Amino acid sequence: MRKKKLTKTEFGMNVVIVILSVGLVMAACWMVFNLVLVKYPMGEQSFAYDLREEKYLQLVTDYRINRHEGEEDKKELQEYYAVAEYFRTASLYHAYEEAENYEMSEMYKQKAKHAAQNMGDFADFKEKIDLKLGIR
Known about the structure:
Elements: H1 8-37, H2 44-52, H3 56-68, H4 78-98, H5 102-117, H6 125-133
Helix pairs in contact: 2-3, 3-4, 4-5, 4-6
């Protein structure tokens, strides 16, 4: 069977279909990138919700997103950031303590103590975090 030669019109239509298909795939990739991969700074409501629901790991994630986005100097979020930092450092302290790496555990214990001093109105969450992590 012989292959039929494409006319200029058919060839042009095929080129247009390929270009549109590539454009559609690129637009879908851009949309996924913007919806999934790009993080936006978190506001006080997000931090308050995380704290109220005791979602400390999410609090740390929100804090890191804000640091990455250059939002770490917001005065109204400093106490939330201190709670997030306390949870992160207390978790690491506890992990190193359990692993009997006393040098690292002491370092994170000091960092956790420093973060606890900056918790302000949220100082009562220190005990909740300690209880959750099993810190004596």
